[in-house]
Design goal:
The chain is α/β, with parallel strands linked by helices. The protein is built from 9 helices and 8 strands. Strands 1, 2, 3, 4, 5, 6, 7 and 8 form an 8-stranded mixed beta sheet that branches. The structure holds S-adenosylmethionine.
């Protein structure tokens, strides 16, 4: 566990992880989380669909990384375990795949530890994305991931919890700098681009959770990949990222309110 993070469950405010769990049909949430979730859902029915679309995007991205030979994953902002967790997708394709989950939320961490007990190729770290050095240090100390080899860094639905004041671009740069050539970075991130006012209002309600959301433009989100090579089809509305079949693509993919993309660290020439 990284230093200084509260380990107590705060029941006085909704938690982003628990609200998300409720939207995904999970059981690890409390009345205060359900109230906020229902309020948000009443304002925009799209939000629950957005969260499910985020999960589907993550699964497709993980499969793409597995196809590219990635066998170790650092999943930051992993959330409360739910159907189709990264280690399930990864280990179904490669039983030797290793996954380290990181989350700031004590409920997410506790349930992840419970779920993963007995799975020696997975680990859980209680840490804050805003302290990437602590995450990298704890991950090295755990001995599960070998950062001298290519790794898949997963930041699904989490960077928007880092306000500009906490310098998310620097956080991302620190994580990229720790990765070996051949590594991949997956980011999905809420946006204000192409969004109706009701969606923007609902996102503003996130200010009531312990972690507020900062919506960003496609250009800002693209910047999080630094000089890594962004894979086709680029940073796009999540359902447009390599859909399994054309019928998976909604007539209005922008209604999901978030961009997703994947990039690879190609060794600089010379
Ligand atoms: C919307 S959920 C996404 C869960 C999962 N990655 C997915 O895509 O299905 C966001 C998660 O990020 C976590 N989170 C928020 N701020 C964080 C931070 N600063 N450091 C680490 N985790 C954070 C929340 O606790 C929550 O579990």
């Amino acid at each position: 566990m990284a230093d200084g993070l509260p380990t107590e469950i705060d029941l006085s405010r909704p938690s982003a992880a628990r609200v998300y769990d409720y939207f995904l049909g999970g059981a690890h949430n409390f009345e205060i989380d359900r109230q906020l979730a229902e309020q948000i859902a009443g304002m925009t029915p799209n939000l629950a669909a957005t969260m499910r679309a985020g999960r589907v995007f993550l699964r497709r991205a993980v499969r793409a990384l597995l196809d590219a030979g990635i066998d170790q994953f650092l999943d930051i902002g992993s959330g409360i375990p739910t159907v189709g967790n990264v280690h399930e997708v990864a280990q179904a394709a490669n039983p030797k795949a290793r996954v380290v989950y990181v989350d700031i939320d004590p409920v997410a961490v506790a349930h992840s530890r419970e779920l993963l007990a007995g799975n020696d190729l997975t680990g859980v770290i209680h840490a804050d994305l805003r302290q990437p050095e602590a995450i990298l240090g704890a991950s090295r100390a755990m001995g599960l991931l070998d950062l001298d080899r290519p790794v898949g860094i997963l930041l699904a639905g989490v960077v928007h919890f880092v306000p500009d004041a906490d310098r998310p671009a620097d956080v991302l740069a620190t994580l990229r700098a720790a990765a070996a050539p051949g590594s991949f970075l997956v980011v999905s991130h809420s946006t204000f681009e192409d969004q109706p006012q009701e969606m923007l209002d609902a996102q503003r309600l996130s200010a009531r959770t312990a972690t507020e959301i900062t919506l960003r433009s496609r250009a800002e989100i693209t910047g999080f990949f630094g000089d890594w090579t962004i894979l086709e089809p680029g940073v796009v509305h999540m359902p447009l990222w390599r859909p399994d079949s054309p019928s998976d693509v909604d007539a209005h993919p922008e209604r999901f309110g978030a961009f997703g993309g994947v990039a690879r660290y190609d060794q600089p020439a010379g």
